[in-house]
Design a protein that fits this description.
Elements lengths: L3 H8 L3 E3 L5 E2 L6 E9 L5 H8 L6 E5 L7 E3 L1 H10 L3 E8 L2 H4 L5 E7 L11 E2 L3 E3 L2 E3 L4 E5 L2 E5 L1
Parallel strand pairs: 3-4, 4-6, 5-6, 6-7
Antiparallel strand pairs: 1-12, 2-7, 3-8, 3-11, 9-10, 11-12
Helix pairs in contact: 2-3
């Protein structure tokens, strides 16, 4: 994969650069793929459902409203994502089981960690446009992530 810095040098403003400083948790630090989205708040049922379905190399962007109160993904859901062929998960929220996730062949970026699990009510929206720090994540647009950050097609 071409580095995000080189991609930005080549494509400039055709790409959006996410200024949010997310931490890397997965065993893969550089990943890319078409975007799928979930918007939810302290409820990861939709995250689990989507990551259980065929990923075909996609990246799930989870708008968890920046909540640090509960984790939206743990090692069991991350393993579902690996098994289903997802390239990565970007979470505007927390993960748990970070040591286990670090050993998985999956790109994972999130705000931080919290051992507290989330609700399982299925409240939220799937495949809607989400916006984080003025960067628009449209389902189907391509996302590129590495150690330097995240770029998204406009």
């Amino acid at each position: 994969m071409t580095s995000t810095a080189d991609l930005y040098d080549e494509h400039g403003d055709a790409l959006q650069s996410l200024p949010l400083q997310l931490r890397s948790f997965g065993g893969v630090t550089a990943f890319e793929g078409p975007i799928r989205t979930v918007r939810c708040f302290q409820d990861n049922a939709l995250v689990k459902t989507l990551l259980s379905s065929p990923g075909d190399g996609a990246v799930l962007v989870v708008d968890g409203a920046g909540s640090l109160g509960t984790a939206l993904m743990g090692d069991m859901i991350a393993q579902l994502a690996v098994d289903a062929g997802w390239a990565g998960v970007v979470i505007h929220g927390c993960v748990r089981d970070s040591a286990a996730i670090a050993g998985m062949p999956l790109g994972v970026k999130a705000l931080g960690t919290n051992p507290r699990k989330s609700a399982k009510d299925g409240v939220g929206e799937v495949d809607v446009t989400v916006e984080l720090c003025d960067v628009v994540f449209r389902p189907g647009a391509r996302l590129y992530a590495d150690e330097d950050g995240i770029l998204v097609e406009r």
